[in-house]
Amino acid sequence: MKEQTEKSSFEGLSPAEIREINAEISEYEDKMAVSTEALKIIQKHRRWVSDECLVAVAELLELSPAHLEGVATFDNLIYRKPVGKTVIHYCNSVTCWMLGSDQVRERLCRHLNVEPGEMSADGEYTVLPIVCLGACDHAPVVMVGDELRLDITEDVVDEILGR
Questions:
Q1: Phi, psi angle pair for 128, to nearest 5°
Q2: In the chain, where are the structural domains located?
Q3: For residue 16, what are the CA distances in angstroms to 5, 12, 51, 88?
Q4: Domain 86-160 belongs to what architecture?
Q5: Which pLDDT does position 132 carry in this prediction?
Q6: How far apart, in whole angstroms, are the C-alpha atoms of residue 96 and residue 122?
Q7: Which residues on adjacent β-strands are paired with residue 87?
Q8: 3-state SS of the chain?
Q9: In CATH, what number does 15-74 get?
Q10: Which of 152, 33, 28, 37 is nearest to 89 (CA)?
Q11: Does the N-terminal peptide bond of residue 82 adopt cis geometry, omega within 30 degrees of 0?
């Protein structure tokens, strides 16, 4: 499969992003298979995927922007608007809800002075709901960055936020 060169003008993408996406492309016969990973590469560098970057990635992968938008909106861990340095996902599944996730969410939001989906004023945190984190036997659970935290109580929120 022909690899795109860094000299190509995929406006909005850095040479490092293009290089990393090309490395993924070389692992697959079909560029469509790289869709999710390519968006995650952009997000790794920028913390979110802007419209401009989504279009540039679509061009690089020779896919439609609509296809990539579908991928991005399906995956709860691809962010289409700016997020804080640390994203805190609170599970809002039935089990977590029954065991107190609403109180955990309220405490997180109160301490950060945000509503769910908003970024804290200092740009450090964003609090987002997520359907399930797969640890119902330790509900309620949150994911802080890439770290799954189990058996969360309101008091643990202070520890999570370093307060």
A1: -135, 145
A2: 15-74, 86-160
A3: 11, 12, 19, 27
A4: 3-Layer(aba) Sandwich (3.40)
A5: 92
A6: 28
A7: 126
A8: CCCCCCCCCCCCCCHHHHHHHHHHHCCCCCHHHHHHHHHHHHHHHHCCCCHHHHHHHHHHHCCCHHHHHHHHHHCCCCCCCCCCCEEEEEECCHHHHHCCHHHHHHHHHHHHCCCCCCECCCCCEEEEEECCCCCHHHCCCEEECCEEECCCCHHHHHHHCCC
A9: 1.10.10
A10: 152
A11: no
Q: How confident is the model at residue 12 (pLDDT cuts 50, 70, 90)?
A: confident
Global pTM reads 0.83
Residues in Cβ contact with 93 at an 8 Å cutoff, skipping those fewer than 6 apart:
131, 132, 133, 136, 139
Contact 40, 11 (CB under 8 A): no
Alpha-carbon gap, residue 39 to 44, rounded angstroms: 9
Query: Is the distance from CB of 82 to CB of 43 less than 8 angstroms?
Result: no
Q: Which residues pair with 89 in a beta bridge?
A: 128, 143
- Find out whether 72 and 80 touch, Cβ atoms under 8 Å: yes
pLDDT, tens only, 135-160: 999 999 999 999 999 999 888 888 88
